[in-house]
């Protein structure tokens, strides 16, 4: 089954976690590396997701694990379960999210974080950290996420020092934020 662009973005954004959980489920020696990641996620407001991951680590593979999860957590748990059945379905952590599809999803997260959604803020901080590690324009975009959450919308200020691709993404992001803020 083909994933929507948004779901594929989520899957790629969380590729490292998905792969780590599958590895830990298949090899108990790998669980030591996963433990701190799960603790941090739980403290960041991802208790439902972590609870389901712990069930998977204990051998539960029932599709009912998806019941009651939000959309993002459903994509992550589904990818873990699929990866356990067929490792070829696991996302490639090197491919990362597609920047052309990033603006709508990122705008939704920034919008939610600006309204006090703790899970969105946590997810955004993780994404900003990954973007910063990527370097170049992605690092600059990762660096402006807090300003976007705080309400900065001046394209000249936000795009300072970016190349054409980064500037294009920021402008698309501002357009999407504008749509969300009007509703």
Order of helices and strands: HHHHHHHHHH
User: What is the rounded distance between the termini?
Assistant: 32 Å
Helix content: 55-70%
Radius of gyration: 17 Å
Question: Helix tally?
Answer: 10
Low-confidence stretches: none
Specify the structural class: mainly alpha
Number of domains: 2
Mean pLDDT over all positions: 86
Beta-strand residue percentage:
under 5%
Largest sheet: none
Instruction: Tell me how many strands there are.
Output: 0
Question: What would you call the shape?
Answer: elongated
Core attributes:
183 residues; 70% helix; mainly alpha; 2 domains
Question: How would you sum up this structure in a few lines?
Answer:
The chain is an all-alpha fold. The protein is built from ten helices and no strands.
3D architecture notes:
The protein is mainly alpha-helical. It has two domains: 5-89, no CATH class; 101-182, no CATH class. It is 70% helix and 0% strand. It contains ten helices and no strands. The chain has helices spanning 5-13, 15-26, 31-43, 47-57, 71-85, 102-114, 118-134, 136-149, 155-159, 164-182. The protein is elongated and about 50 Å long. The two termini are 32 Å apart.
Question: Could you give the topology of this structure?
Answer:
Blueprint: H1 5-13, H2 15-26, H3 31-43, H4 47-57, H5 71-85, H6 102-114, H7 118-134, H8 136-149, H9 155-159, H10 164-182
Helix pairs in contact: 1-5, 2-3, 2-5, 3-4, 4-5, 6-7, 6-10, 7-8, 8-10
